[in-house]
């Protein structure tokens, strides 16, 4: 691989319009039936010739005339793919086929294997493209400046390329050598290669020298819960079907420096649907971390089987086998969610909350860091009681969802990012948020609103203080 040549290829691709806008046109790449949908969308689009041939070769994986793809990418660009081992050596004469898939997303170019149309059981060395879970994990990862960041189970390297923008050093690990090679290609095309160190090994094993030194760790592990030995996409490890996730959650805090974050997605099981947060709480007990345990959805065993296992050759488990797993481990519910932890000395807190987890909607970094700061600050009862003496400001990038058919004025306030955290409010909340100007103590701002008749309750009404505490704790109001 020649990193400089791949960097020149990336510049050429940007110049011909091979950017994130392509994904908006072609749809969710890699999902079942994606090729038909992408081809149909492509057939109704007439890009410039160079971009057309680049899409046919790099995304759709077609055999294309060598003369056309050379004209599109330039000879050095095509040579960079050849040097990186990304061309199909068995392509017929005068044609070229790119064996890997190259996808633009969030200003990066990521190299992966190209999934077929249908659900399949990938070989051990297969590297998946950026999927919904990877995009969600990227959005939920705090984008804070750190010395050392870790992309655990790197896959195609998309997260590593993003981490390199705010970390001085990125450690990319994977048990699969091909994943590390494709990550190097991703890094070279995304201008991140000089910052990334590659380590081959399983889970936490390659990170033994980093105890207490990591500022950010992100991991999107295999997390399908199924029968033992049912495929490499499953989370079986140890005594429980979600043992791999448990091992990561228990082990990650030991790697973090003070103030360092770890973010993981996964599925975990529990005896009853209402007990969905109990096991993650136990895993994090005594870890020295604050934590948000976010529930995207909770399913009964039958719902989980239908949505996640049935028809999947990646984790082939019959309904009878799944029922036996549930009986053996006392599974009464399965939850998909995210765990975000921050290492901190002192008394720690854990917040468990259900919320829609919407992938690829927008980074939630600012919301997450704001919530961690607020939750910690308001642990002090005196600070919480004096909150109106603090300088507060309504946060940016909010949306008020109003039901026009509801005469009571009820509405929902959400963050316009992947972490929405809907909060039930009155639709007049926008007046209060605008009135908190971020320059004066909130009490004075509220007094001004009251004097104009824009505040329905007195400033000293305990209900108003409670409302503002809730807004702060959910990141809708910033503490200055």
Brief descriptors of the model:
single chain, 480 residues, alpha/beta, Rossmann fold, Outer Surface Protein A, domain 3, 3 domains, eight-stranded mixed β-sheet, three-stranded antiparallel β-sheet, 18 helices, 35% helix, 23% strand
Descriptive notes:
The chain has 480 residues and is of the alpha/beta class. It has three domains: 3-99, no CATH class; 132-361, 3-Layer(aba) Sandwich (Rossmann fold), CATH 3.40.50; 382-479, Outer Surface Protein A, domain 3, CATH 3.90.930. It contains 18 helices and 18 strands. The chain has helices spanning 3-15, 21-26, 34-43, 49-58, 66-73, 75-83, 132-140, 158-163, 177-189, 243-251, 278-284, 301-309, 319-329, 365-377, 381-385, 429-435, 442-451, 462-473; strands at residues 64-65, 95-96, 101-105, 108-112, 146-152, 167-174, 196-200, 214-219, 256-270, 289-299, 333-343, 350-354, 391-394, 398-402, 410-415, 423-426, 437-441, 477-479. Strands 7-6-5-8-9-11-10-12 form an eight-stranded mixed beta sheet, sandwiched between helices. The longest helix has 13 residues, at 3-15. It is globular.
- Weakly predicted, low-confidence segments: none
In the CATH hierarchy, the architecture of the largest domain is: 3-Layer(aba) Sandwich
Work out the helicity level. 25-40%
Overall, the morphology is globular
Radius of gyration: 25 Å
CATH classification class of the largest domain: Alpha Beta
- Strand proportion: 15-25%
Read across the widest sheet, the strand sequence of neighbours is 7-6-5-8-9-11-10-12
Counted beta strands? 18
CATH topology of the largest domain: Rossmann fold
Number of domains: 3
Q: Report the sheet with the most strands, covering strand number, pairing sense and barrel closure.
A: 8 strands, mixed
The secondary-structure class comes to alpha/beta
Supply the CATH superfamily name of the largest domain.
Vaccinia Virus protein VP39
Distance between the termini: 48 Å
Return the average pLDDT rounded to an integer: 92
Number of helices: 18
């Amino acid at each position: 691989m020649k990193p400089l040549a791949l960097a020149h290829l990336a510049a050429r691709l940007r110049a011909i319009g091979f950017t994130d806008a392509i994904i908006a046109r072609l749809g969710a790449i890699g999902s079942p039936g994606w090729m038909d949908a992408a081809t149909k969308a492509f057939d109704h689009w007439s890009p410039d010739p160079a971009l057309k041939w680049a899409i046919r070769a790099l995304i759709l994986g077609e055999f294309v005339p060598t003369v056309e793809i050379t004209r599109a990418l330039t000879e050095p660009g095509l040579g960079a793919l050849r040097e990186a081992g990304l061309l199909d050596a068995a392509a017929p004469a005068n044609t070229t086929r790119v064996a890997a898939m190259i996808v633009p997303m969030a200003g990066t170019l990521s190299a992966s294997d190209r999934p077929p149309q249908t659900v399949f059981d990938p070989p051990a060395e297969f590297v998946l493209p950026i999927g919904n879970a990877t995009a969600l994990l990227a959005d939920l990862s705090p984008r804070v400046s750190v010395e050392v960041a870790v992309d655990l189970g790197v896959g195609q390297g998309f997260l590593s390329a993003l981490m390199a923008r705010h970390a001085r050093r990125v450690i990319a690990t994977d048990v699969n050598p091909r994943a590390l090679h494709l990550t190097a290609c991703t890094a070279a095309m995304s201008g991140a290669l000089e910052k990334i160190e590659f380590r081959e090994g399983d889970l936490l094993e390659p990170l033994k020298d980093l105890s207490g030194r990591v500022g950010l760790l992100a991991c999107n592990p295999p997390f399908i819960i199924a029968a033992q030995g049912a495929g490499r996409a499953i989370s079986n490890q140890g005594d429980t079907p979600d043992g791999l996730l448990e091992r990561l959650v228990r082990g990650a805090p030991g790697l973090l420096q003070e103030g360092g974050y770890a973010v993981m997605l996964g599925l975990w099981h529990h005896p009853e649907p209402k007990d969905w947060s109990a096991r993650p709480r136990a895993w994090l007990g005594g870890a020295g971390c604050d934590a948000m345990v976010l529930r995207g959805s909770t399913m009964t065993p039958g719902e989980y089987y239908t949505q996640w296992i049935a028809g999947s050759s990646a984790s082939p488990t019959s309904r009878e086998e799944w029922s036996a797993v549930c009986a053996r481990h006392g599974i009464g519910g399965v939850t998909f969610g995210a765990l975000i932890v921050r290492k901190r000395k002192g008394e720690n807190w854990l917040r468990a909350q259900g919320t829609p987890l919407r992938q690829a909607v927008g980074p939630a970094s600012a919301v997450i860091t704001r919530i961690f700061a607020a939750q910690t600050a308001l642990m002090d009862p005196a600070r919480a009681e004096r909150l109106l003496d603090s300088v507060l400001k309504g946060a940016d990038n909010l949306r008020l969802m109003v039901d026009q058919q509801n005469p009571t004025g009820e509405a929902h306030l959400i963050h316009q990012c992947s972490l929405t955290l809907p909060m039930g409010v009155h639709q007049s909340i926008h007046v209060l948020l605008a009135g908190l100007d971020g320059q004066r103590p909130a009490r004075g701002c509220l007094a001004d609103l009251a004097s104009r008749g824009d505040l329905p309750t007195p400033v000293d009404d305990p209900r108003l203080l409670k409302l503002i505490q809730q807004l702060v704790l959910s990141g809708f109001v910033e503490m200055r």
